[in-house]
Amino acid sequence: MTAQLIAAAVAALVAVGLGYLARAARADRQRLRATETSTTATLTALAGAASDAAGSRSYAERVELSGVAAPGPQGLLTSEISGTPCVWHHHKVSRRYQRRRRDSDGNHRSETRTEVVTENRSREPFVLRDEHGEILVVPETAVDRPRKVRSEFRPEKGRNGLSIDIGSLSLNLPSGDDTLGYEYEEWVLTPGTPLFVQGEATDRSGRLEVRDSLVAPLVVSTRTEEELQAAHTRRTLLCAGGSALAAAVALVTLALAVLP
Prior knowledge:
5-stranded mixed barrel, 14 strands, flat, alpha+beta, 4-stranded antiparallel sheet
């Protein structure tokens, strides 16, 4: 009976978690549908009108834009692993290792696991440029579907105190007899990449830019608005269906546990 109660509780937690994910996906889709796509010229005019009416640094509005990526005020960046010229980059280094454990029969088994050793992404503003002008984008969150330029596994089994230099990145990595090696991954946005951006357009910093807000996170994607809406719809249906199934399993398991 105890095992059935535990299974029912786990299924109920899964149902709640998937329900939350379905609700979040539905909210993301609704934000896309509710926000009208603007141009950089329109936003510049609106910010100027707000400044004239209410004073400087008074403009803030949820917006959508489509255009292409271009370098920001700091110029082109260089990704840390591959050295790719870009406007944004993200890298991750993961350790792959073996862990020995004893199963329920007392036998020792080995399983391969992965842990992230280091991960970082650039946060320098870059430009979104459309046919009417350009606007700064402050990438405080991850970019959706950037181009992957490095995916490499390097065996390093049995070496201790591993220190490597890869591109401009210098790392001291943990090692040992259980370490199989390290996986290096890197993603970039290069100039000219088509982008869809949804976020808060504001001049509070003294310049007009699109960034995160307290209401909703910044969205920067190489997918179109239509592709994002379709993805949110699929995620909503999958999570809602999974939540309903898990809830049904929880109820049936609970009933079996309490019925004589």
